[in-house]
Design brief:
5-stranded mixed sheet; 2 domains; elongated; single chain; alpha+beta; 10 strands; Sulfite Oxidase, Chain A, domain 2
């Protein structure tokens, strides 16, 4: 019995070493960075995190440090109310930057721009765009959040769109809380 266990141990070690070296070889040959997802959790401050495009004067990109600058209206530890599609209500605390302040400070909007749509890096977007007048009339309730409960958005970010339920009381607002936010499409 002891001899059999020894052979099983040796076979397990050989299989483990083979899998390890085949994986290393694959990463090198295919030029795969196995730590890329970990790097995405902690973006550098000078990495472009959001692009605003569509019916704008010119496509506009912002880094995380630019978003956090005093150039734009910063919203700190504000409570946002959510209602999901099945009627569950809850509150979360976010910090971020006002969407409207970015659009107005940078004078990005072309005449005729009426709506905006948040698009995540994973391709998710809400089924219907929202009116720009909602962002203009409620600048502190339509934000690009970079912190939740005082902590950076590691798993849902680095940015997430947040629209308070008070802004769109007639429907669920969780569809507009887009994780992994990468693009704002102005139409």
């Amino acid at each position: 019995m002891e001899k059999r266990n020894f052979y099983i141990l040796i076979a397990s070690i050989l299989i483990g070493m083979s899998v390890f070296w085949i994986s290393v070889y694959s990463f090198i040959i295919l030029d795969i960075d196995p730590f890329q997802n970990i790097k995405n959790l902690f973006p550098e401050e000078n990495t472009i995190v959001i692009t605003i495009k569509g019916n704008v004067v010119e496509e506009f990109e912002l880094t995380l440090s630019e978003l956090k600058s005093d150039r734009y209206l910063q919203i700190e530890d504000k409570q946002f109310h959510f209602l999901n599609a099945i009627g569950r209500e809850y509150d979360l605390i976010f910090s971020g930057v006002s969407l409207w302040s970015i659009l107005s400070v940078e004078n990005l909007l072309k005449p005729g721009a009426m709506t905006f749509l948040f698009i995540g890096g994973d391709g998710y977007y809400a089924e219907t765009p929202l009116s720009l007048s909602l962002a203009e009339q409620n600048p502190e309730q339509v934000i690009l959040a970079y912190e939740q409960d005082g902590q950076p958005l590691f798993y849902d970010g680095p940015l997430r769109s947040v629209v308070d339920h008070e802004v769109i009381p007639d429907k669920a607002n969780t569809h507009y809380a887009v994780k992994y936010l990468k693009t704002i499409l102005i139409e």
